[in-house]
Amino acid sequence: MARYTGPKSRIDRRFGEAILGNPKVQAKRNFPPGQHGNNRRRKTSEYGVMLAEKQKAKYTYGVLEKQFRNMFEKAARTSGITGEILLQNLESRLDNIVYRLGVAPTRRAARQLVNHKHIVVDGQVVGIPSYSVKPGQVVGVRERSKSLEVVQNALAGFNHSKYPWIEWDESMKAGKYLHKPERADIPETIKEQLIVELYSK
Length: 201
Hints:
This protein is α+β, with helices and mostly antiparallel strands. It has two domains: 8-89 and 189-200, Orthogonal Bundle (Ribosomal Protein S4 Delta 41, Chain A, domain 1); 93-179, Roll (Structural Genomics Hypothetical 15.5 Kd Protein In mrcA-pckA Intergenic Region, Chain A). The chain has helices at 8-15, 23-28, 46-61, 65-77, 82-91, 94-100, 107-115, 149-155, 192-200, and strands at 119-121, 124-125, 138-141, 166-169, 174-177. The protein has a five-stranded antiparallel beta sheet with strand order 2-1-3-5-4, with helices on one face. The two termini are 30 Å apart. The model has no long low-confidence stretch (mean pLDDT 88).
């Protein structure tokens, strides 16, 4: 399945945030990657700003270009605020829900757990990271996978109350997707309106 496999630190430095990797990398080199990264002072164009915001959203959620475009077009066809609906749909992806539940330390790790069939939805194994979880569905760890070290380490001390759209059951190692999150509850610093403006050009 297609996914970004390039260097994570370059992405983090490009956007000035720990999107894919270790926050310490950005602290050590707080300038863009490349030979002239430390000397760039050129002002970014309006189009460049919008494009960068789209790229940031893609890398944050681990979605490639064609899939992201399809998700935007789906959001645009839905009544409501397009940018907010786009983020809600990205948040509803199974790999993201697994990450938000604290079952995996990163979205990449969550994607791997899903691919390796360690995750169940309503009791059934689902191995598709892009699977869209519906409100009311329960996402959990497969019974034989609950003892995995990566799962136990990720869950240790995780604060499940910080995401009000998910209800966690510690005894079952599962969480119920209560409803799509409000924009104010999504912690990502993505300016979705810029993405809407980019695709509207």
